[in-house]
Amino acid sequence: MSPLILVGLVFVVVDDKVTTPTTTTTATTTTTVPLSKAQAGWAVASSSARGVMVDYTDENVGGAVFRVLRLRARTTLLRWHVGSEDPPGGASELPVDAGPSIDWASEGLAGVVAVFNGGFKKGADAGGAFADGVTLAPLVPGDMTLALSNEGHWSMGVWGTSGFPAPGFDAIAYRQNLGPLVVHGAPTPAVTSGDWEYWGSTWPTTAGAFTSRSGIGIDRNGNLLYAAAIGHVDVAQLATALVRAGAVSAMELDINPFWPILGASRAPLHAPGALPVQLAYAEHDPTIYETGWERDFFVALAEPGPWACEWASPGLRSGASGAQAQPLSLEGNGCRAASRKSVDLTTTTTAPG
Description:
By secondary structure, the protein is mainly beta. Helices cover 8% and strands 33% of the residues.
């Protein structure tokens, strides 16, 4: 969130406009599966035997165009990574599965379908962070919190409130970033109060309330929503974009032109590859996450095709202290011995740009 001087701004627009698909597309894989029908106004980035994994749309709020990416709860899972520089020391404290680059030895088995930026730097005192048994910054009561389980499932709520996370939710990571942005499907009073400085220091400093912003939310079906826009954007526009996309709860992520980064693939990546669905005018290509990045970020992965199988990590051992590695493995009857080819039943589409 610190101010930076940007040099050599590159304006590259990738998949900048979303329209409703009007043609049927299929792909040849080990099992050919018809592509699930796209929802009106959304374009499909990737799909599998289970259905749509990742889709996306654009929301125009007061002239600011937000790219909104949706991760389907039944077909994808999510992991959180620290950066090489922030949170400070995190890269040396945590196992490789939560390190500064995609863990291809583990996450590559499932297949990467999307990546996007995390929250403010630790020095901003915007909330806590925890991963793999290590507290990187203390969790703050009252802050909106994204929790991730050992199965890659997500949950969002206010830290310290009763029932969050729900009983049986085996959390291996928590990420906070300020108070709630959206609650019960509406922007919170903190959004509409006019106190824009609460939502982070903007750059350039002359921008006032307006800068590039990103945020994350959950819709009523449990799907995860990421929204971001590069340019002259205030926090109310960000909250509105997430609500229009269906968010019932949401939190802000990183802001200012240098930090919002988004990428989605057309098929699960088992090794470094292209992430063509991107954020217009972003400073960085999302493939930086494939080899290493300085700030924290999220990695979305594909669940296996068969419903009897799922990807999961061991979870945290009760009473244990210190870092506990969370490599992924297949869970389910007969799934551990299954080869990747037998579970990666993925179809793809070239969605309209």
